[in-house]
Design brief:
By secondary structure, this protein is mostly helical. It has helices at 22-29, 33-39, 67-70, 79-86, 106-113, 117-127, 130-183, 192-197, 201-215, 220-232, 235-243, 248-260, 267-272, 279-292, 310-323, 338-350, 357-362, 369-382, 388-394, 400-413, 419-428, 432-444, 446-458, 462-472; strands spanning 4-6, 12-15, 53-56. The longest helix has 54 residues, at 130-183.
């Protein structure tokens, strides 16, 4: 039970019950903890004991049963002072029930009546439930994060603008120097002043980018001079460092520089990334290896774990054409690596490596439909009649796309032995596109094929006549 007794001063005295703290008293009477300590000469380390009396200021008790006690005040001002205070200018007395009491401790009372903003927030937080506290903390976290992010974005934009302005200043100067190096006689070393400038990463990046850009559009002696300048400027070491970077895009850029500038010292580093998990990095490493090893550009295909992508195969084809060394793809026509096998079949057909005809024909029995499709396409590009029989036998077993490619490949072989096959397909096949391709196949066989097509037209139904007319149209 709460107990407050009268004190011989302006205020009240509060009797401590067991387990009660100053914080609980301050919350109950809306008082400041520091004020209570100051009124009672208590330190922060002092603890309250049962029965101890504390002086407190006037306030409202939260519980209704104790309210009448706390609002009771004891006036110890002398009667003469009270009368003087209760007398108005006209000499009349004021209602004694409306006495104004002066606080005993002015400073602590002021601090209680005007709590700081931080104290109000703290009190609100302490009174809030768990969910409200979580919401407050999350709001503070996101607000802090937003402020930090704003400063980071502003700093990054300012930094990028500064770097861009420096790059623009360097470009004109370095372009003039590089152009003079290509078209003028020069010594076998670069100026010492330039080497000092290139120690700065911005200057170095601009200088290297200008050399690489010009080299991509030049050939012969001019391109060789740029490679010489790149090496004399000490840039190969920085390209190798890029390959060892933590960031994959920097690694890829370093690999391109090694390949373009023919830096063979980077072969060992390139080898580590030939089968990298990052597909872009893997393609860049494979292309760099091809350009730096023209004698055996596809030696890494011997690795059964190597991975090839469609985009990588296209770039590999372009790189092989640039170096002018097309290997014999029969070396990989028995590979257990499916992607390597597919690429070897494609390249054998594109470059018409007739020595690999039998190996490709064997792939018509491969259980993988994709490999059989590439083998059919390669045989068609070779246009050799000998595998025609195997293609005809395979036709009824295949799905639509493979059957279509078989008809197209047989049409390119120009063998009169294919006439019965084309006739059978025209009459029995349900797919209109395949029937049109078969009719075109007869047309490509010249006179014998045209005679057979005319004979079919005479006995054809309306649908077949439309197909034959469509096949004869040269515009299609």
């Amino acid at each position: 039970m709460l107990c407050i007794e009268s004190a011989p001063v302006y205020g009240q005295r509060y009797i401590i019950v067991e387990g009660e703290t100053i914080y609980q008293i301050s919350q109950r009477y809306h008082l400041n903890i520091d004020s209570i300590r100051k009124w009672n000469n208590l330190n922060q380390s002092d603890t309250l004991i049962k029965g101890q009396r504390l002086v407190i200021s006037g306030g409202k008790i939260k519980t209704a049963t104790s309210q009448f006690v706390i609002e009771k005040k004891i006036n110890l001002v002398p009667d003469t002072l009270q009368k003087s205070a209760n007398t108005s200018q006209t000499g009349s007395l004021v209602n004694p029930q409306k006495r104004n009491f002066l606080p005993l401790f002015s400073d602590p009372v002021k601090s209680v009546s005007r709590s700081t903003y931080y104290e109000k927030v703290q009190q609100f937080y302490n009174k809030s439930n768990f969910l409200i506290r979580i919401i407050i903390l999350l709001n503070l976290f996101f607000l802090t994060f937003a402020v930090i992010l704003t400063f980071v974005i502003l700093f990054r934009r300012l930094w990028e603008g500064y770097i861009e302005s420096r790059k623009n200043e360097c470009q004109d100067k370095y372009r003039e120097f590089i152009t003079d190096w290509i078209y003028s006689d020069h010594s076998d070393h670069v100026p010492e002043s330039l080497l000092k400038e290139l120690k700065d990463w911005v200057n170095r990046e601009v200088f290297a980018s200008e050399i690489l850009s010009l080299h991509a559009n030049l050939m012969g002696e001019s391109a060789d001079k740029l490679i010489e300048l790149f090496n004399l400027a000490g840039l190969p070491n920085y390209s190798i460092r890029k390959v060892d970077s933590w960031f994959w895009h920097v690694k890829a850029k370093g690999l391109r520089e090694l390949a373009q500038m023919k830096i063979t010292e980077g072969n060992q580093i390139i080898f580590k990334y030939l089968n990298a998990k990052n597909s872009i990095l893997r393609i860049e490493a494979q292309l760099a290896w091809i350009q730096l090893n023209p004698d055996d550009p596809l030696s890494f295909y011997d690795d059964p774990k190597i991975q090839l992508t469609e985009w990588g195969q296209l770039n590999t084809l372009n790189s092989l054409k640039k170096i002018g060394n097309i290997p014999d793809f029969g070396r990989w026509l028995k590979s257990s690596n499916q992607s390597v096998l597919l690429f070897a079949i494609k390249m054998s057909g594109i470059f018409k490596q007739f020595d690999n005809l039998d190996l490709i024909t064997q792939q018509l029995n491969n259980p993988d439909r994709g490999i059989r499709y590439e083998a059919i396409c390669a045989l068609g590009k070779m246009a050799v009649p000998s595998p025609g029989g195997e293609l005809q036998q395979l036709f009824p077993k295949e799905e639509l796309d493979n059957r279509t490619e078989i008809v197209r490949s047989l049409s390119m072989m120009a063998d009169d032995l294919n006439i019965p096959f084309f006739e059978k397909v025209i009459l029995n096949e349900t797919d209109v596109n395949i029937r049109i391709l078969s009719a075109k196949g007869l047309i490509l066989l010249s006179e014998p094929g045209r005679e057979k097509l005319e004979a079919l037209f005479l006995e054809a139904d309306p649908m077949l006549k439309k197909i034959i007319i469509h096949a004869k149209d040269d515009r299609i």
